[in-house]
Amino acid sequence: MTTATIDRTTGDDLKFSVLGPLTVSAADGSQVALRGNRLPALLTELLFHANRWVPMSRLVEVLWGDTPPKSYVSNLHTYIHRLRGRGIPIEQIGGGYRITVDVTGLDLLTFQAEADAGRQAVRRGDYEAAAWHFRSALRQWRSADMCAIDQPHLELEAARLETERIAVVEECIDAELACGKAGELLGELDMLVRQYPLRERFAAQCMRALAATGRRAEALEVYQRSRHALVDQLGIEPGRQLRQVHEMILNGQ
Q1: Which Pfam families does the UniProt entry name for this protein (predicted)?
Q2: Is 11-99 assigned to CATH 1.10.150.240?
């Protein structure tokens, strides 16, 4: 029979942030200290999977890679005990652990909840609400440099979450274009196209915004730059969506 043991501290007053350097804040705004490298790495992994069970094997892999010490079980228990001692609510379930956090207590959960709300608004056709929720989601990110902890497995997960962030940026811009905010988006889109030259959706959005504000020639230049980047770096031609936007602008639509 699987049993669960929960530390007496609930951690209700703690706020966790992983969308940027890891921080744990108390109710009075003071920061909870996590010294060394192991405690932040362990807590970050649990927060990346908040409210879900994380097997011990995964935590060992994050902390020590392929060469764990012989005492890894007792070492892991010690680290968990230290986190609990700081009021962090971690429960043990069989051969793994779980941290229980409210949506408002972790920026990652808030980001995901707001992004989901934005997508629901898109499905309803309410693009103003969708844009508001998407922007609220993106405001949770303090920095794209999420993982300052030198742990390859955490870096992979941080990269996956960064991909999620970029996708939400794309969804947000689509919603704002649908609201007629093309002129307001030109500066942001110019930066995104230059920062992500292989993201065809950003190029298509930039072209749409430029064309909507009467800058047709500049929109066609964006297409040429994007095409050259794709051909030079990936050896491929632009995809269907980008080609369609290009043809529509050529046809004056």
Answers
A1: BTAD
A2: no
